[in-house]
Amino acid sequence: MPEHPRGRPPLPAEEIFAEALSLLADGGQESLGMRALARRLGSSTSTLYRQFPGGKDELCTRLAEHIMSEIVAALARSDLGDRWDQVVERSAVVTFDVLHRHPHSASLFAGQVHFGPMGLTRYERSLTLLMAAGLSASDAGAADHALARLIVGYALQSAQDTEDDRAAVFEYYRGLDAGQYPSLSTVVPALPKDVRSEFRFALHTFMIGLRARTGGSPGTGQARVDT
Q1: Contact 115, 123 (CB under 8 A)
Q2: Which pLDDT belongs to residue 226?
Q3: Would you say 80 and 86 are in contact if contact means Cβ atoms under 8 Å apart?
Q4: Fewer CB within 10 Å, N side or C side of the chain?
Q5: What residue numbers bound the domain in which 190 lies?
Q6: Rounded to whole angstroms, how far apart are CA atoms 35 and 162?
Q7: How many CA atoms lie within 13 A of 135 on its CB side?
Q8: What's the total number of domains in the chain?
């Protein structure tokens, strides 16, 4: 086979992203370096830099777009309902679940993000839906940002939250003196048992406020924006 004119041939993008997500899952963004990724791929850093001239920053940007593509595809496969509030709430759960499946991937969306085509598509559809529901432009933007921070924040926490750690915390609180801490003794056994359940509660509470902001009618506004 003739030698590739610029060294090793480029690697399939899907293979690169799969290994990058594996590195993220192992240790977060600190573990996602070009050298470490090249080792995982059995390649060289020079090959990776030819495909990602911007280095780790470009890799993270394109990896975020890859995740966003997975989110958009998952939304397209899901039954999101007919009312605008169903679409918003169920879309948030689908998005959280995708991020949860890829530990630490939510860190790619922390802070201000310049979206690629898939991210822009999701952003546009969300704003269109919220304004059709009766929110002003400023309220629609604020609602979308607040919802995104809610999803990303809980997804970030889910990467750190293990069953053993949670069990140890519950055991500590259960061991407190019920006479001195009566509310704690009552509430702790009833707490959600995982981060996803906590997220669903926070999301449901958020949606109550959002519906009130639009006038309180779940059926108000456009029924659905295609995803």
Answers
A1: yes
A2: 40
A3: yes
A4: N
A5: 79-213
A6: 29
A7: 23
A8: 1
Q: Which two tokens stand for residue 51?
A: 């495909």
Cβ distance 101 to 67 under 8 Å?
Answer: no
Asked if residue 147 belongs to a domain, the reply is: yes
Alpha helices in 161-194 (DSSP H): 163-174, 182-187
Nearest to 151 by CA among 80, 73, 220, 71: 71
What type of residue is 223?
Answer: A
Report which of residues 169 and 151 the model is more confident about: 151
Tokens of 129: 């839906």
Q: Are 88 and 207 in contact (CB under 8 A)?
A: yes
Asked, for residue 198, whether it belongs to a domain, the answer is yes
- Nearest CA to 128 out of 3, 227, 9, 18 is that of 227
Burial state string for 155-194 with b = 16 or more CB within 10 A and e = fewer than 16: bbebbeeeeeeeeeeeeeeeeeeeeeeeeeeeebeeeeee
Domain CATH number, residue 180 = 1.10.357.10
In a domain, 134, yes or no: yes
pLDDT tens for each residue of 174-199: 888 999 999 988 898 888 888 999 99
User: Looking at the domain assignment, is residue 90 inside a domain?
Assistant: yes
d(CA 8, CA 160): 37
